């Protein structure tokens, strides 16, 4: 039986028209208005609301009922479902999926990606590639869980404002950092966001980003790669790509895959952040 990948909008895949993929929206609440991420709230509109608002929005996990419905849709359409969620340490969405799977009429595998945004995305894309080869659920899940250990994601923030507003750093640290034009470099490690370093100025930030890439085992260009930007313009990301073009010379496609970063992470990093995700080569 063919496999359908069920995932959440934390992977930032929007507008996909693929019968083997079902993306369930997280909820995004601005004030008293609740939106379905990527359904009635585009990434562009999200950043417009984020910049205009005085308070940060709240994100809500995908609930068990939504997963149960997705499982039923897959069965009805003749697919065997495989669920891949954003990191269980960042959201209760994984637990929701497990609850729905436990109540399903057939066995349903649930995989914690351990990631979010572009790094969750490349794991979903990898799983879709395996599904198109007509591999079964168990083999796809096993391969995704093994490949998960090879995923590297690195992000460069343009501002500390949203970390300050979200209470993740103090007001004094935020103000001091903004005054010195501090650009944090972050990653996801063991399912949680981790600070890799802080650079003074955008150029030094991009250099620190490249140092982190060079410190890894390199990029496996036979696997999915994704670059993302937060905000309404990809200008900062395009500058980074241009300045770091030697890193991407081996990419086999015509253009690097560039995507928008949605609300799940955008709420905390704000506009101007850039991120890249790739698989290290197998050892």
Which short descriptors sum up this protein?
283 residues, alpha/beta, Rossmann fold, Hypothetical Protein Tm841, Chain: A,domain 3, 2 domains, six-stranded mixed β-sheet, four-stranded parallel β-sheet, 37% helix
Q: Could you explain the architecture of this structure?
A:
- This protein has helices spanning 43-52, 64-76, 93-103, 118-132, 137-148, 161-165, 171-179, 202-215, 235-243, 263-269; strands at 3-8, 21-24, 27-30, 33-36, 58-60, 80-85, 109-112, 151-156, 182-189, 192-200, 226-229, 258-260, 274-279.
- By secondary structure, the protein is α/β, with parallel strands linked by helices.
- It folds into 2 domains: 3-148, Rossmann fold; 151-279, Hypothetical Protein Tm841, Chain: A,domain 3.
- A 6-stranded mixed β-sheet has the order 10-9-8-13-11-12.
- The two termini are 32 Å apart.
- The model is unreliable at 167-180 (pLDDT under 50).
- How far apart are the first and last residues' alpha carbons, in Å? 32 Å
Structure class: alpha/beta
What does the overall shape look like? globular
Range of helix content: 25-40%
Separate helix tally: 10
CATH topology of the largest domain: Rossmann fold
Which architecture name of the largest domain does CATH use? 3-Layer(aba) Sandwich
Low-pLDDT ranges: 167-180
For the record, what CATH class of the largest domain applies? Answer: Alpha Beta
SSE succession? EEEEHEHEHEHHEHHEEHEHEHE
Question: What is the percentage of strand-forming residues?
Answer: 15-25%
Pfam family, one: DegV
GO molecular function: lipid binding
Protein name: DegV family protein
Keywords: Lipid-binding
